[in-house]
């Protein structure tokens, strides 16, 4: 039990975290499920639009992602509470195990539980709208793409959960806005420095080369960085944040 | 063994709390950590348990670097802070979910301690009073069989019978491997319990002596009338009389008044320490 990553201890820690947060998780799931059921029933009953089931599915996806981000932001609440943090930090569990357990709960477990809730909601709303045959088509490429995007982008809120001591979700959103503005300002300034206000000009025969480079960057490099590097990098930063955390 | 070497530490934007702090704590002793408010007692305990990192210097606990917070080290540390918030679950569920992390955890010991403190293991933690929660944490901490037990103001909130139960249980739980650190303002609660007195003043260890040594070299008088001035190390008014600490010339073991000792150290640490340094053993 003395290594940095011990699966038995990880299992105990997962069980502990799920048990301690069991009641609040069920309350949150129940409340959201109830609210969405009411909205679905009202929309399906009073709306004749044939696309209503698909529109409701999109609403569920928005709630699914937002709910996941908020849930992720709260995953280290025990560590940030002044009268609970000592217990969390002195529990004989390594930083790697704390990180893995928190990620497992907020990513794969959340995806499965929230996915099942969405299946249930979609079936009910399709039935209420009298369009049950639309039900299988709701789980198309867009749906699975959203799940994938959630699993990557939730790492941002995971880092926010380890970094900020209170209002983690809102502070992470604010940090994202600031970072986006900074990147926009930087690229704008860089463009202005390189090209001035006279527009882009390329030498004869070089334009094609630039186009290919830009295509390679946008079609290969950026997707690769997004799908395979972004989340692991943020999780690694979160690990160091957990390791360096003091009361 | 716990060793703090050349510890320097400051809270952000504050003046330094610890400068060149050195302290060694040995197994088989109960240490009483005393100090005024803001002296740095809780910060020192947090350094030992790896909850605060020194700016420089080294803090090792049983050979482990404390800030690394390795599970192997944490299994041997149990800390009961002054203020805590326990989840709204039953005692037995708390034990089930948290006891598994301590390889030496004993359910039998826990049941015995809970019985001693008259706590029902099926009760919900949220229904217990502050003192009962504290007793539960003490029982849980002892049942982990951690080699280092850190108690910050453990007797706060305990009623009079519980305080004597606490002293009895703590004294009985000490073995040759264990180090118990008790930090408190209520020095009278520690009488007949601690083996060593460590006094922290403005981030410095100003006194660190064994009780045997103290009782051999110091005497605590409640009426200093007639005592030669050169024998008095510290004096204070007590109910219209002068009480204080005097040199124990006779060398007979004296009962240690921790409150007087603490007041004396705060006012005249140099004088009292000098007396210990000058003391000649007679064989």
Automatic annotation (TrEMBL), chain A:
Keywords: Membrane, Transmembrane, Transmembrane helix. It comes from the Bacteria. The keyword Transmembrane applies. The chain crosses the membrane at residues 18-46, 58-76, 142-161, 173-195, 216-240. This is Uncharacterized protein. It comes from Pontibacter diazotrophicus.
TrEMBL record, chain B:
GO terms for molecular function: ATP binding; ATP hydrolysis activity. InterPro entries: AAA+_ATPase (IPR003593), ABC_transporter-like_ATP-bd (IPR003439), ABC_Transporter_VariousFunc (IPR051782), P-loop_NTPase (IPR027417). This is ABC transporter ATP-binding protein. Keywords: ATP-binding, Nucleotide-binding, Transport. Residues 2-227 form the ABC transporter domain. It holds the Pfam family ABC_tran.
